[in-house]
What does this fold into?
Amino acid sequence: MTAPWRLVLLAAALIVLVPSVWHVAAALPPFGHPSAQYGPAINAILPAARHVTNMVAAVNFDVRGFDTLGEECMLVCAVTGAVVLLRGARGERDEARAGHVPGRAVLARSDATVLVCRITATLTLLFGVYMALHGTVTPGGGFQGGVVAASSFMLLYLGEGYRAWRRIIRGRAMDALEGGGAFLFAVAAAVPLVIGRPALTNVLPFGQLKDLFSGGLMVVVNFCIFLSVTGSFGLLLLEFMEETRSPAEDSVPDEADR
Amino acid sequence: MSALIVAALALAALTGLLIVLTRDPKRQIFALAANGLALGALFFVLQAPDVALSEIAVNTAVTPLLFVAAMAAVAINEMRR
It folds into this structure.
């Protein structure tokens, strides 16, 4: 398609779309004044009913906890699929040698980089754990804490280099974190079934409002998600990094190479 | 709608546009990271700090790194042939 015809098509689309979009947009409720009743209702009911102050966590882990179990399974399936795809083309063998694009200079890491990365990686990991632990009290939670903790692995890579990074971040440990977190979540969901209540019923004592361990079963579920998300993202980083490592002699060739 | 929200919205739109206008994939990755940061600021201004945190961690830290790793893998594979 040539440029003038594209412009004609754009003009035709604009003539149709602009009035209709404007019509819909003008009928929307004003910015910052949502008309939905769900948020105010949650805010009114849950602090007293569940003794938590982070309503997002309360909705995710309690009110619609079963949905979160499904999302957790989706995450595990997606990461497992990515790992199977990448390892399938590469083989199980891992070699602790960094790959490097030929022709690009490899500069030595400065001491300042190493120091800053070690400090910030530690702080980032601590912040992730902190955020996950306080999931029911302050904004954040298992997913956010897990992603932040996994990003500390990247800082480790930046500071330590590929070989040392592979020694610290073990694939098996990431597998165990990912699968173990999801498994514990499923167990936590199933425990109420044993005593004859619906799945994910909050059977644990709720604790005190604004206390670190408030929210009963939510604390457990939150931490399971933290473990699983940390493992999932750590595993993804590991597998993508593995794609750049120097190939071993007997690695499985790509389909196109055969 | 306060000036802060308008500024954050404009910044998010601008960085989003810049991703599209950037044609070099390597630069695009960093444009994507900047857009994640701008979106994180927008979510924070809109009083959703937890969403802002996941946005920044996923879109500014993890996704660009995966793209960088993927591009490095492609470059290494190209050279080997």
The CA atoms of residues 119 and 155 of chain A lie 9 Å apart. The radius of gyration of chain A is 24 Å. Confidence is low (pLDDT under 50) at residues 249-258 of chain A.
